């Protein structure tokens, strides 16, 4: 670790511990339970004077104190959270409830690759960025603040959003430690692991994650929460530590589809610091996403089933039976299942020859160098600086020196050359002739797939997806059902996901810490 970084880290750590130890209990209407409460529940409790934002923050500080040492879902808590809560309480007294957004006075954790211009660090989980100063809030954080949300802190993640080493432990970062699934204490999936862990374990109401390929859908699935991966450009990536601007997107991770829709309402739309949002803003529906929370949302929807995505093997009887029940539920809700479909070049897209890595490695070097140079201050200013930092501090980072293969491969690229252009053309063709053709030819509203298994198809085309809890295996590991669609299909996906959730109520809170 760089010598100048160590005092900063210790100071922040001691500050966090002081805050958490100061709030051992809080009093509010004992007839109201905060655990598993939705945004609507919380706003109603505010309105009925059963709860204040200050009490809500105090409750979650206690939850963090109890559970985060076990789960490692959170890197930092905002020292200013209680001040923000007090301000929200004052605003509520002066305003009509109808004038306030569903996120007003609600604590939100954001993934530690999303910039906040406050006392919090933005490090992508690495000590290499500890003490760096961002020029401004990320675009999505600006929108959260405008909606009245409380920036509660930074969620842990797979370091550098799982783009450092092939051998890097899933859900692990040097700053955050090893994140753990609150249901099994095992695999949380990455890279938005902490965003899912913190929501699943009731350490916060809602959170934000990011996805390049599977990083919202996968942790949402394995931690029994709802994740929305928006159309690329629907939400701003400005101020987000990047991997590929062609594939990166920011989305909500919540306990219910409704909460995720309300968060998406708050963060979607144009941002002058991200040009992609200008074009994608055409997909934002007038009246917002909340209008698509319909109990009969499955009725009449054409949902495609690609059986190759459900190839668990003949001996995995549980999952085969579990997803047949999912199909039955979809039909029960009035969906029209278009079964036994095939996606052209399925194995190419899901394998190593699609060209995705060739493109993303070059895109990462370009975009991360731009991000680092734009920082007001930083211990590192380029990918090569990050590589050198890791070499010098391999013991601190708890990885061997060779544990940055992706960094080294990306550094070896020389921009978007012939190989990269060919890879990009190949990806565009695979997407158009694969997922897009399947959707259009069969007039589908969505494809349904086990949790994260649809992510490759959505990633290379910039398409949206939603993951919803669907059950638990005999060992207690959660699994989910994912729905993916074409660009701008978020309204349909929300209708489908909400309709499915209404019929199943598939989420159960983890038993961690119960007496």
| Mean pLDDT across all amino acids | 92
Percent of residues in beta strands: 5-15%
Structural class: alpha/beta
Count up the domains.
Answer: 1
- Whole-angstrom Rg: 22 Å
Number of helices: 19
**And the CATH topology?**
Amidase signature (AS) enzymes
What is the number of E strands?
13
Protein name: Amidase domain-containing protein
Keywords: Signal
Organism: Cucumis sativus (Cucumber)
Pfam families: Amidase
Structure description:
Mean pLDDT is 92; it is low at 1-26. The longest helix is centred in the last third of the chain and has 24 residues, at 418-441. The protein has helices at 5-21, 39-47, 53-71, 81-94, 139-146, 159-162, 193-200, 217-222, 257-267, 276-280, 317-332, 346-350, 356-374, 383-392, 394-397, 405-411, 418-441, 455-461, 490-504, and strands spanning 74-77, 107-111, 150-155, 172-173, 177-178, 206-211, 226-229, 249-254, 302-305, 336-338, 446-450, 465-472, 478-484. The protein contains 19 helices and 13 strands. The protein has a single domain, classed as Amidase signature (AS) enzymes (Alpha-Beta Complex). Helix 3 runs antiparallel to helix 4 (81-94) and helix 13 packs across helix 17. The chain is α/β, with parallel strands linked by helices and 515 residues long.
């Amino acid at each position: 670790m760089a010598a100048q970084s160590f005092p900063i880290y210790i100071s922040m750590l001691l500050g966090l511990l002081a805050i958490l130890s100061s709030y051992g209990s809080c009093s509010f209407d004992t007839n109201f339970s905060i655990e598993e409460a939705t945004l609507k529940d919380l706003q109603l409790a505010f309105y009925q004077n059963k709860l204040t934002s200050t009490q809500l923050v105090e409750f979650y500080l206690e939850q963090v104190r109890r559970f985060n040492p076990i789960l490692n879902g959170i890197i930092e808590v905002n020292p200013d959270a209680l001040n923000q809560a007090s301000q929200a309480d004052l605003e509520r007294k002066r305003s009509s409830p109808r004038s306030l957004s569903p996120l007003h006075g609600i604590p939100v954790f954001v993934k530690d690759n999303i910039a906040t211009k406050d006392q919090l660090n933005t490090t992508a989980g690495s000590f290499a960025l500890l003490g760096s100063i961002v020029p401004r809030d990320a675009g999505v954080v600006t929108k959260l603040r405008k909606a009245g949300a409380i920036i509660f802190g930074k969620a842990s993640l797979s370091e550098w959003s799982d783009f450092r080493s092939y051998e890097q432990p899933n859900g692990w970062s040097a700053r955050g430690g090893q994140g753990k699934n609150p249901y099994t204490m095992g695999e949380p999936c990455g890279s938005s692991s902490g965003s899912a862990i913190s929501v699943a374990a009731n350490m916060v109401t809602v959170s934000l994650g990011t996805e390049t390929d599977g990083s919202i859908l996968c942790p949402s699935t394995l931690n029994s929460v709802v994740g929305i991966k928006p159309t690329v450009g629907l939400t701003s990536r400005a101020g987000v530590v990047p991997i590929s601007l062609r594939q990166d997107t920011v989305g909500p991770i919540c306990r219910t589809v409704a909460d995720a829709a309300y968060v998406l309402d708050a963060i979607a739309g144009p941002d002058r610091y991200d040009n992609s949002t200008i074009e994608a803003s055409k997909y934002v529906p007038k009246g917002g996403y909340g209008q698509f929370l319909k109990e009969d949302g499955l009725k009449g929807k054409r949902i495609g089933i690609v059986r190759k995505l459900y190839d668990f093997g003949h001996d995995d009887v549980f999952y085969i039976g579990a997803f047949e029940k999912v199909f039955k539920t979809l039909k029960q809700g009035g969906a029209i299942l278009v079964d036994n479909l095939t996606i052209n070049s399925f194995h190419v897209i899901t394998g190593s020859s699609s060209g995705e890595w060739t493109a993303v490695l070059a895109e990462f070097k370009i975009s991360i160098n731009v991000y680092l140079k734009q920082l007001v201050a930083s211990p590192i200013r380029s990918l090569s600086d990050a590589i050198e930092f890791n070499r010098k501090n391999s013991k601190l980072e708890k990885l061997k020196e060779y544990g940055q293969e992706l960094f080294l491969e990306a550094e070896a690229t020389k921009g978007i050359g012939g190989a990269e252009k060919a890879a990009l053309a190949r990806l565009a063709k695979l997407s158009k002739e694969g997922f897009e053709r399947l959707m259009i030819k069969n007039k589908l509203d969505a494809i349904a797939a086990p949790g994260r298994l649809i992510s490759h198809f959505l990633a290379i085309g910039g398409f949206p997806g939603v993951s919803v809890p669907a059950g638990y295996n005999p060992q207690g590991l959660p699994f989910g059902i994912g729905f993916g669609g074409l660009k701008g299909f978020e309204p349909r996906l929300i209708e489908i996901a909400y309709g499915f959730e209404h019929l199943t109520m598939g989420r159960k809170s983890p038993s961690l810490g119960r007496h």
